[in-house]
Specification:
about 475 residues; alpha+beta; elongated; binds zinc ion
């Protein structure tokens, strides 16, 4: 029997805000333990939470970026559980009335555009962090109360690679939208992975097995790659899978049971009595909508259709936003976008890396790229000379025309001058001339190279070819 995997992801993302979710403490990574804390985020008695409006905006913005509905009535709930890193003994989250729901993400996977539906993206708060030392443990509450968004996908994912690609697409969207820095090293993105398998064709889902607290995307891919065959093996051997939570041991490369359904948490959710429901006005939503940006996939597709660029060039521009902005300025007046893209990607980017210059301080004005291309296209300079002109432009920001003028780099298209170079080269290389006449076509290239050399690269190579051939055939 054939089996198929059904995978859903719950992705937790720290939001890019200055302060925490319910208090004014800084939302910053790396401060000394328990320095960004106050009575509110430590859960001391008698304090009240005040919602961070920017976190609400970023959550609704995420909903817009993920094509979600934005309900006009959302609320917060208490999720009760007792754990040392949860100072209030409950977490404030959104249970049955989230801020966004029913969306989707489209992304490229194995050469096709695939869609994963989004159940919801809701707002909650992060917890502190436990540290275990040799003989005691400690808790750092700096992270407690940091705004955290949970993005829940539908179980539309069918493989480890697809899960990995989805997570990267989601991360790119959140970075593009300015929602989160998504710094994995700083634990800003973590996910829980639900994996089940079922016989192919069966509608009913298999037992839901959750792998908790994954903090790298490559870890997710490895864990899912391990988990799918493990579950299939259990079923094939006649065993039964039951709902359980597992943890991923990255070193051993296996998942292990954390708790079974019997020990599942009962969170006793109830509406948060200290916070009003969240009912955004039309104006408030319109303001958030102004922050919606063009997403990576849309940008890629636009670069491919609008400028006729091949996919690798479009990808380069999607991944390097400043370079893409520069290209778009350079291409404005251009007739050949691909030529502009080549100069920007192959030459400009290489020079930036080589010299350690940032794009903001680059001296070449975007329209000058087009001027350079025009000089080549019109035959004024050769492509080889254009490289030297570009280097000059990069160094001093001068216009390509004035560099060509000052340095006398204009291509020699004066047939009289070229004829003279050709005569000299033929006279100096009788053997090659004879070879060509005897039918060795390659000899012409050698002679052409000699003429280009004699002209210091300035002769128009097409003219050189024509004149040489004519002269040799006559001789
Ligand atoms: Zn605080």
């Amino acid at each position: 029997m054939d089996y198929e995997a059904v995978i859903g992801l719950e992705t937790h993302v720290q939001l890019k805000t200055r302060s925490k979710m319910w208090c004014g403490c800084a939302n910053e990574f790396g401060a000394p333990p328990n320095t960004n804390v106050c009575p509110v985020c430590l859960g001391l008695p008698g304090v009240l939470p005040v919602a961070n409006e920017e976190a609400l905006r970023l959550t609704v913005l995420t909903g817009m970026l993920l094509n979600c509905d934005i309900p006009r009535h959302a609320k917060f709930d208490r999720k009760n559980y007792f754990y040392p890193d949860v100072p209030k003994n409950y977490q404030i989250t959104q249970y049955d009335k989230p801020s966004t729901q029913s969306g989707h993400v489209d992304f490229e996977f194995e050469g096709k555009i695939v869609r994963v539906h989004i159940t919801r993206a809701h707002l909650e708060e992060d917890v502190g962090k436990n540290f275990h030392f040799e003989s005691n443990s400690g808790v750092d509450f700096n992270r407690a109360g940091v705004p955290l968004m949970e993005i829940v996908s539908e179980p539309d994912i069918t493989s480890a690679d697809m899960a990995y690609t989805y997570l990267n697409a989601l991360k790119d969207i959140l970075i593009f939208g300015g929602v989160s820095a998504c710094d994995m090293e700083k634990g800003m993105v973590r996910c829980d992975v639900n994996v089940s398998v079922r016989p192919k064709g069966q509608q009913e889902l298999g037992a839901k097995i959750e792998i908790k607290n994954m903090n790298t995307f490559s870890g997710v891919r490895r864990a899912v790659d391990h988990e799918i065959p493990r579950q299939i093996d259990v079923l094939k051997a006649g065993g039964k899978l039951t709902q359980e939570t597992r943890r991923w041991d990255d070193t051993a490369g296996i998942t292990e049971v954390m708790r079974t359904k019997e020990y599942a948490h009962d969170y006793r959710y109830f509406p948060e009595p200290d916070l009003m429901p969240f009912e955004p006005s039309d104006d408030w939503i319109a303001d958030v909508r102004k922050r919606v940006v063009e997403l990576p996939l849309a940008r890629k597709q636009r670069f491919m259709t609008m400028y006729n660029l091949p996919a690798p060039d479009a990808d380069t521009f999607v991944n390097d936003r400043p370079l893409a902005d520069y290209f778009e300025k350079a291409v404005r007046s251009a007739s050949n976008a691909k030529a502009v893209a080549n100069w920007v990607i192959n030459n400009l980017r290489a020079k930036l890396t080589e010299s350690g210059t940032s794009l903001e301080s680059v001296k070449i004005q975007p329209p000058q790229i087009q001027e350079l291309i025009t000089l080549v296209d019109s035959g004024k300079i050769s492509t080889k000379i254009a490289q030297d002109v570009f280097t000059e432009m990069f160094e001093n920001g001068q216009s390509p025309a004035s560099i060509v003028e000052q340095k006398g780099l204009a291509q020699v298209s004066d047939t009289g001058a070229i004829e003279q170079f050709c005569d000299e080269v033929i006279a100096a290389n009788p053997k090659s001339a004879a070879d060509f006449k005897a039918g060795k076509a390659a000899a012409l290239n050698f002679l052409k190279g000699q003429v280009m050399k004699a002209s210091k690269g300035k002769a128009n190579p097409n003219l050189v070819g024509e004149i040489l051939e004519r002269k040799l055939k006559l001789a």
